[in-house]
Prior knowledge:
By secondary structure, the protein is an alpha/beta fold. The protein folds into two domains: about 1-70, no CATH class; about 100-210, 3-Layer(aba) Sandwich (Rossmann fold). It is about 30% helix and about 25% strand. The strands form three sheets. It has a five-stranded parallel sheet with strand order 6-5-7-10-11, sandwiched between helices. A four-stranded antiparallel sheet has the order 1-2-4-3. The chain starts with a strand and ends in a 7-residue tail after the last helix.
Amino acid sequence: MVGNGAQTLRFRWLESGKGIDPRPQRRRFGRDLIGRGLPYDFSGAVGSLSFGKDRVQCTIKLPVNQYAKVTLSARGRQRTAPLRVTVMRADGRGHVLNGRGVLVVEDQYLIAEDLRRVVITFGGEVVGPVGQVSAASELVRRDPPDLALVDINLQGETLYPVAEQLREQKVPMIFATGYDSPHVAPDFAESLRLEKPVSTESLAAAARSLGIAHDL
């Protein structure tokens, strides 16, 4: 599709057959990824699932031009790590961040959800998550959190201006990133850094080192 100088990629998938529930009662992973994940990862994207008698249709629209300008070099210095989804367990660890407001800034939906769940595991109150520098800056300006768990690179834009805001507000900050230490800006080279994926154990240790963790 082309209109007003903008290009949009439209994808439609239709499946039919007996046994498809026209009114699913549970929101499963696929629906969450399409309905919430796509718009989070790609600004302007729309994803939807519609169900009918013995049929289901998935429709996805992606703005092409906006992402054609993002080069691979923006992420070229980041190391990749296998993605995992943290499983929440009621195992007595829920007091480390009890009541702390934790800002989560990450531009990839599945990783943002992973970080959100880790924070919730420890009883923290998640601020966000957000995946844009401007949105993160506004949240910090409006109501500084108790802790910030942030990525460095958001869709090719560095988070350092927000990191400076956090430092001015004296908000403890942890970089959750794939960047190696030599590639972090000199002004933040001494900032605490955790490699993604962030585990519950590493976040607990980081919170304690920053002096904001509650004792277990």
